[in-house]
Design goal:
Layout: E1 5-10, E2 13-18, H1 29-43, E3 50-55, E4 60-62, H2 75-81, H3 87-92, E5 98-102, E6 105-107, H4 109-116, E7 119-123, E8 127-129, H5 143-151, H6 153-162, E9 165-167, H7 168-174, E10 179-181, H8 186-198, H9 202-214, H10 220-234, H11 238-248
Parallel strand pairs: 2-3, 3-5, 4-6, 5-7, 6-8, 7-10
Antiparallel strand pairs: 1-2, 8-9
The chain binds coenzyme A.
The site of coenzyme A has 16 residues, from strand 6.
């Protein structure tokens, strides 16, 4: 059976490509299982500093869950299909930065996957949306929770209640994507950012991501206290000593991840 998720390496960056091009890279059980396996391997591999997720081909990032699997399915079967561990939550809390390289249609579960990533870079040809309403469904992979946090309640209502797609520029203007680039430059731009991030101390990246993720659940006063604790925790690392010494010595820091 052909792999539903491909993994390749570029320096310290792992690229995961959802590989169901004739099915718009729709997410099914095989994608779920293979993604979880790749993420576990990446988590345990110190030579990987960042992850990029994309879709195969030139047209689709991910056009959502595989709609074929929904036909005739009972609530219990659906619950089994959505059993823990949840891929989207793992990505959001993954100890290494995860970038979504949005190369085309980014719909439903595809949009939810992208929203679980830390940074979203989109091709100017990408189209994004939550069209579940057209199937008699609502988003089930975090869309009703992550979308309003990114774009505000009104924009989330508009997208989820209408099922309309938006182009990359509009998605950027509302905060759904962070950067839009010409389609042909998407890979180079995304990999350049991923490589730059992956060149930092993995330990510090992990703490920074954890602090930012905490802002999604904590009130501002608690978040600021939590940040202070994490900031002070950085003073226990060799990488803090190295970073400061390298600045003072006017040389490049060599991170140890300790
Ligand atoms: N699940 C399963 N198959 C899907 C799919 C999905 N979410 N999205 C697309 N496909 C399949 C199509 O059925 C088609 O397969 P076929 O050639 O065997 O018929 C193939 O992928 C290509 O899609 P197609 O619809 O022919 O391309 P298009 O350019 O005309 O339209 C989209 C592209 C993305 C607008 C359209 O495919 C679409 O609306 N997809 C569903 C999006 C959706 O509702 N996602 C939420 C799911 S919860």
């Amino acid at each position: 059976m052909e792999a539903a998720v491909l993994m390749e390496r570029e320096g310290r960056v792992a690229i995961l490509t959802i590989n169901r091009p004739d099915k718009a890279n729709a997410l099914n059980e095989q994608v779920r299982i293979e993604t979880l396996a790749h993420l576990e391997a990446i988590q345990n591999d110190d030579s990987i500093g960042a992850v990029v997720v994309t879709g195969s081909g030139d047209k689709f990032f991910i056009a959502g869950a595989d709609i074929k699997e929904f036909a005739g399915r009972s609530p219990f079967d659906q619950r089994e299909a959505m059993r823990f561990p949840r891929v989207f939550d793992i990505m959001a809390n993954f100890p290494k930065p995860v970038l979504a390289m949005i190369n085309g249609f980014c719909l439903g579960g595809g949009c939810e996957l992208a929203m679980s990533c830390d940074i979203r870079i989109a091709s100017d040809k990408a189209r994004l949306g939550q069209p579940e309403i057209n199937l008699g469904l609502i988003p089930g992979g975090g869309g009703t929770q992550r979308l309003p946090r990114l774009v505000g309640s009104g924009n989330a209502m508009r997208l989820i209640l209408s099922g309309d797609m938006v182009g990359a520029a509009e998605a950027q203007s509302m905060g759904l994507v962070d950067q839009v680039v010409a389609h042909d430059e998407l890979r180079a731009t995304t990999l350049a950012l991923a490589e730059k991030i992956a060149s930092k101390s993995p330990l510090t990246l992990r703490v920074a991501k954890e602090a930012i993720r905490a802002s999604e659940r904590l009130a501002i006063e608690e978040g600021i206290l939590y940040e202070r604790d994490l900031f002070c925790l950085c003073f226990s690392t060799e990488d803090k000593e190295e970073g400061v010494a390298a600045f003072l010595d006017k040389r490049k820091a060599e991170w140890k991840g300790r």
